[in-house]
Amino acid sequence: MLEKLLRKIFGDKSTRDLNLYSPQVEAINLIFEGLHQYDDDQLRERVADIRGEIAEKLRDLRETLDDLERRFREEAEESERNRIDNRIDETRKQLKALTKSTLDDYLPEVFALVKETCRRLVDQEFEVRGHMLKWNMVPFDVQLIGGMALHDGKIAEMATGEGKTLVATLPLFLNALVGRGVHLVTVNDYLASRDAEWMSPVFNFHGMKVGCITTGMSFEERKEAYLCDVTYGMNSEFGFDYLRDNMAVSPQQLVQRDFYYAIVDEVDSILIDEARTPLIISGPIAQDKNFYPELRPQINQLVQSQNSMVQRVLSEIREDIREDYPAADMDRLATNLLIVQRAAPRNKAFAKLMQESWLKKLVNDMEGIYLRDKRMHELDEKLFYVVEERQNSVDLCEKGRELLSRHEKNLFVVESLDDVLNRVDEDESLSEADRIKRKTLETNRFMDKSEKLHNINQLLKAYTLFENDKEYVVIDNKVIIVDEFTGRQMPGRRFSDGLHQALEAKENVTIEAGTQTFATITLQNYFRMFERLSGMTGTAVTEEAEFIEIYNLPVMTIPTNVPVTRVDHEDVIYMTKNEKYQALMDEIIYWHELQKPVLVGTVSVEVSETISRLLRRRNIPHSVLNARQHQREAEIITSAGKPGSVTIATNMAGRGTDIKLGPGVVTQSTENYRGIDSAVTDEFPYGQPLDGLHVIGSERHESRRIDRQLRGRAGRQGDPGTSRFYLSLEDDLMRLFGGDRIAPMMMKMGIKPGDAIRHPWMTKTVERAQKRVEEHNFEIRKNLIKYDEVMNQQREVIYSYRRSVLKGFSLKREVQEMVAEAVLRVVDEHTSASSYSEDWDLQRLCVWFRNNLNVAIDPDELQSDHLTRSMLEDILRELVMQAYEKKEAQVGEEMMRDIERRSVLEVVDDEWRDHLHEMDLLKESVHLRSYAQKDPLVEYKRESYELFENLISRIQDNVTKKVFTTYILSQEQMESMLNKAKTQHEDMSAFIQDQTLQVSQNASEPPQFSGPYGGEAAKPRPVHVAPKVGRNDPCPCGSGKKYKNCCGRFADSE
Question: Do 207 and 40 meet the contact criterion of CB atoms below 8 Å apart?
């Protein structure tokens, strides 16, 4: 009540937003009227002038920022670097604010120029996806408001058919004048190509270039598209290009520009539904070991055992609810119902029982008693496993563990790996070599057992929580995911954490080998990198809290240009699905006979096939659009608005496309449909109007915006339309979150089987249930975000450093720091702080430097009467740095910087791939920590930090080794060395006979180069100098023989 009063006094958020932009709209239209007098060239000149004026205003800050970044790279003093880094952050903020304020100043004029451009394009024809289209669009006032909302970093919620594609051109054009490139992101290749071609005349008129990023483009095509002023593209392609750029080894291999400004079309689909979907560039894993084929029959037996037990319990339940059963026991009945609810909540017979309100109340009361008395474990002892449908989890019970342990004793007894390895260390009967072998064996056993337990958990999920034709389909011996929001197939996508392989095992299809992640990022983290982000969609306001919390994107509802005349009827709720489907069929037939097009929305492939089967029995012609007929989407959507057509579509019925009404569907002017009496009467059993598209929802989706998206297919641009949702208490949403409240209400109203209830209160109750589901799902997503943030922070560190390397800055200071850190670790590994210096093996230490860094150190150089670890570290650091300077003087400063850059890039890429694999393994196993009463998230953060520290250490060590052992040869030098080796090998016998050949080999001496580096020489190649060739290694001369049987003979004789 208070909220309504405050809204009446101060106005709601939408009204305040509109009032904020109204003066700007008037200013734009005033300038627009004055532009009619200018010719085309004068308009183009003005746009060019504005571009120049913007660049001039930003020039000083841009130059300051470039200078600070250069100084930061060159500065060696840490305190000065920190001061410069702070100035860089401050300058970037100033530049961002100045850019926004400058564009705001030019917004009215630029928007007016775009509107005038659209006016001059009217009646001109352009080719769009192979068809000639006549331009007939000039932005309305509400579209100008939508454009300003997008420019201000908001989400513009616009109804279907209100011209979001045209609206986006306004902020895209304005922000493109900055010269940093702007992006428009869509959900698929078709929409990206269509929108780019459709809107390009506006940009081309002023000499701006429009690019488009789609699947299958070459490197040159992608680079050219990103260099355009405006770039359209599919969401995942932008993410994959970012990952490829972070695998490049030279600046010339980069395609993307600055992350400045992006508009995300269908923002709710991309930034919520697909936000946590990882984009992965992967390759074959070195060793992929899983036990799905071995465990499948065991899990199948386990599931069958539980199902048999459930059937026995259901038989007892049916006996207890018989009115003529003399031994009925209400406590036993309630307990048995609770057992089935925990064992098989999706059982169809159980779902049918739950439509009885008194049984539903009985099981809820019994569940409360068990939870209150903390006796739920007594119930679970009778089960093999417990299915927690709301938490989307399955937990094995003791009975299930016993069944699986028959095949492998002690399968569920897991010792700590540290305890096992400590026990091996304490076994004095083992030699050092045997101890290493035993540790390897025990580690492999531990990893195998952990993998088996993980596979068991995933197979149980596959059998109990995932249904064929609902969450996935099996086509051509492959398990293909079905998008739960669009119903579209997603080939190439795979469930993570081994779940996809579990589904493949369940369906007995080929289990694809595991892959190793080379690079990965989620769409959520990719789009958060943009300096300025906005979005547009038809349904976003219900998810505004999530948009603000994660992306800082407020939602603004843009009014329609013509008032909506669609009538949304109240929900119709039945007790059972059969009653619901019968009523749904009756309404479809009614509208079909009146030649009114009908669109039926379903939430799964299974439901769409069921409704299709019922329509075929009644000889009603119809089309089905779901994951099985996805390739016919364009054809089906085109005919969905024709008179009398019936279309069954999974969920959003072609998101991103409009259903246009055919001739004869609308018989009156738009004004006649406003304020029409929509009441259900005997004359009009399904209400009015009789014209337009009618939308039927076969059940409520768990997300309100999906239902709104479905409703929005009707009533576009003022067209008449109607919508109605049919529900039953057996629907998943009602059963999980609404049935316990709605069923008693229906019983109190005296509802009998076959009767339905229609009332605004019931509709509100359903929407509240949806809101609870949305809040629950948001909490799950927020928890996943916390895990993803850990990985994202590490990725940002690695990728930002890698990008700075590609920019060509000198790495000498960083490499010297890496060398110093590596020396400290080597000393720490070879000496002990608790031992005397006389006990240190300095000879072994010198051998390490010779073998790994190609640096010859005499142990006598390290001897001292008062040698300490700090003294040893200083001596070794000085000797290694001298070798570093010597090498730089030998190969030249330019070549040394090139060696450092190549070494850093190669090592970072190799170690990052291994780190990603370690993080994948950690994420798969960390949930087991909950059994030890530990928070998996805390453990994940702690161990991932340790893994990242190890990653940095490995990078430092391996970069140090490569810098000292890598030399770069030009093509001419490489050919000269190969020819020389060939000549030596062919003439070897003659040299032996004459005894004139003196063979000398010194591994610590690098090759000497006579030719210059650079010039027009071919691309140089890195060469690693090996300190010594093993006797059984292939001979380096290229003969194919072993070294000891070839050139090694003469080295030995020497």
Answer: no
d(CA 661, CA 719): 9
CB environment 160-193: b (16+ within 10 A), e (fewer): bbbbbbbbbbbbbbbbbbbebbbbbbbbbbbbbb
- The four Cα atoms 578, 581, 586, 589 give a dihedral, to 10 degrees, of -140
Q: Which region holds residue 638: left if phi is over 0, alpha if psi is between -120 and 50, else beta?
A: alpha
Q: In angstroms, what CA-CA distances link 323 with 338, 371, 396, 668?
A: 21, 30, 36, 59
Residue indicated by tokens 């055919």: 662
For residue range 411-436, what is the model confidence (pLDDT) as tens digits? 888 888 888 888 888 888 888 888 88
> Which distant-in-sequence residues (6+ apart) come within 8 Å of 756 by Cβ?
572, 573, 574, 579, 583
> What digits encode the pLDDT tens for the residues 169-217?
999 999 999 999 999 999 888 889 999 999 999 999 999 999 999 988 9
Q: Which pairing describes strands 125-128 and 131-134: parallel, antiparallel, or unpaired?
A: antiparallel
Residue 442 predicted with pLDDT over 60: yes
The answer to whether 648 touches 614, Cβ cutoff 8 Å, is no
Residues in Cβ contact with 368 at an 8 Å cutoff, skipping those fewer than 6 apart: none
Strands 278-284 and 210-213 turn out to be: unpaired
Contacts of 914 (CB under 8 A, 6+ apart): none
Indicate the pTM of the whole model: 0.72
CA–CA separation, 284 and 515 (whole Å): 5
Give the Cα separation of 132 and 666 in Å (integer).
26
Residue 825 in this model has a pLDDT that exceeds 80: yes
279, 239 Cβ separation under 8 angstroms = yes
Residues 819/823/824/825 CA torsion (nearest 10 deg): 100
φ, ψ at 654 (rounded to 5°): 85, 60
Who's near 881: CB < 8 A, 6+ residues apart?
Answer: 816, 819
Q: How far apart are CA 728 and CA 603, in angstroms?
A: 14
CA distances from 854 to 289, 351, 965 (A): 38, 73, 6
Query: Is 339:312 a contact under the CB 8 Å cutoff?
Result: no
The upper half-sphere exposure of residue 629, i.e. CA atoms within 13 Å in the direction of its Cβ, equals 20
